[in-house]
Specification:
Length: 168
């Protein structure tokens, strides 16, 4: 598997736990974890495959740790890189902008030339709308730790199994 990095804010408890679980699911070829709090554009350029972690805040906004990097990320040349995104959301509390952070990041990285991989199906979720949804699929792994925590581990294992194929 090509060089892979997992990017997320380690200061966010749930995202940090999920990021570590995703790293472990890769098995012996574990990706590096790059804390967003310390990341630079060069970190993104150093990897062939990127796994990005994001939660959606308030009314469909990116958390501040991603917001602060956006101006730099917008200028990255990412052609040939594969990007997979995992996102945390609350389908009951925020059904009108469920996991919008995934969609925002996917659009940004696609504009920079990346290929988005790791699509999943929305079948087991109930929500009104989401920027993470395109042509009937989510643009990444969707996790609802508030309402479906018991499904998280199995979803991660299935997603990483597919990512390993897409990243090779």
């Amino acid at each position: 598997m090509k060089k892979t990095g997992i990017f997320y804010a380690i200061n966010t408890k749930k995202t940090n736990l999920i990021g570590k679980e995703i790293q472990e699911a890769f098995g012996e070829n574990k990706p590096d974890i790059i804390p967003l709090e310390e990341a630079s554009t060069q970190n993104f350029e150093n990897y062939d495959n990127l796994v990005l972690g994001v939660s959606t805040w308030f009314d469909g906004e990116l958390p501040s740790y991603w917001d602060e990097l956006l101006p730099e990320i917008e200028n990255l040349k990412m052609k040939g890189k594969k990007v997979a995104i995992f996102g945390l959301g609350d389908q009951v509390g925020y059904p009108e902008n469920f996991v919008d952070g995934i969609g925002i990041l996917a659009n940004l990285f696609e504009r920079n030339g990346s290929t988005i991989v790791g699509y999943t199906l929305p079948d087991e979720y109930e929500f009104e709308k989401s920027l993470a949804l395109r042509e009937g699929k989510f643009l990444g792994l969707v996790l609802d730790e508030e309402n479906q925590k018991d499904l998280t581990s199995s979803r991660i294992l299935a997603w990483v199994k597919n990512l390993k194929k897409e990243f090779s």
